[in-house]
């Protein structure tokens, strides 16, 4: 058997690189209940707004280093000097509004934890703690937004979060397994 026959069937969006395939196989669509990991994806998805996800994945480790291992408690305390350092860091997306939003979002993330006990509880109670299982046959069947992503976006914006439009929130839901959008023939479809 050659490699083509041994290749797993995957969602078509991830076929352009090994990094993408590994992300798809190991993370995308896998339910995340840990607040630290949820914040990591929230931060990365907000920086992804208007860009491709592969751009963010390629810079993920740079983001990890620049943003103190995605420690939202530290990020919530960033001062202007730290923000200026981040804006000079060529390893991340140096968008001033997005860098400032990372700090604001970390502060608001902590407020949600205080209100609900955890961000995980806040986000997962919207689906009764279980992933929403979509059944897209092809990538064309995967929506960019849903009524639930609209609802989450609206609520987070009301709470002061930035760069959390409905499309960003739907991508966040997919990344963290709140919704399962693996296509019908993908090996990860459960």
From TrEMBL:
Q: What does this protein do?
A: Hydrolysis of the deoxyribose N-glycosidic bond to excise 3-methyladenine from the damaged DNA polymer formed by alkylation lesions.
Write down the chemical reaction(s) this protein catalyses.
Answer: Hydrolysis of alkylated DNA, releasing 3-methyladenine
Provide the E.C. number(s) assigned to this enzyme. Answer: 3.2.2.20
User: Top-level EC class, please?
Assistant: hydrolase
Q: Which InterPro entries match?
A: Adenine_glyco, DNA-3mA_glycosylase, DNA_glycosylase, Tag
The protein's name in its UniProt record: DNA-3-methyladenine glycosylase I
Q: Which Pfam families match?
A: Adenine_glyco
Q: Which residues bind Zn(2+)?
A: 11, 24, 182, 186
User: Any idea which UniProt keywords this protein has?
Assistant: DNA damage, DNA repair, Hydrolase, Metal-binding, Zinc
Q: Which residues form the signal peptide?
A: none
Question: A Gene Ontology biological process annotation?
Answer: base-excision repair
């Amino acid at each position: 058997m050659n490699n083509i026959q041994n290749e797993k069937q995957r969602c078509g969006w991830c076929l352009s690189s090994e990094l993408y395939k590994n992300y798809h196989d190991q993370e995308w669509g896998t339910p995340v209940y840990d607040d630290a990991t949820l914040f990591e994806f929230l931060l990365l998805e907000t920086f992804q707004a208007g860009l491709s996800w592969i751009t963010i994945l390629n810079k993920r480790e740079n983001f990890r280093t620049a943003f103190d291992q995605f420690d939202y408690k530290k990020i919530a305390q960033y001062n202007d000097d730290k923000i200026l350092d981040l804006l000079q860091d060529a390893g991340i997306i140096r968008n001033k509004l997005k860098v400032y939003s990372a700090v604001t979002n970390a502060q608001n993330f902590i407020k949600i934890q205080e209100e609900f006990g955890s961000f995980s509880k806040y986000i997962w109670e919207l689906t009764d703690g279980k992933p929403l299982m979509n059944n897209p046959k092809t990538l064309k069947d995967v929506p960019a937004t849903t009524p639930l992503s609209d609802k989450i976006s609206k609520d987070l914006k009301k709470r002061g979060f930035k760069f959390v439009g409905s499309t960003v929130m739907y991508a966040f839901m997919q990344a963290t397994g709140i919704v399962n959008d693996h296509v019908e023939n993908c090996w990860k479809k459960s």
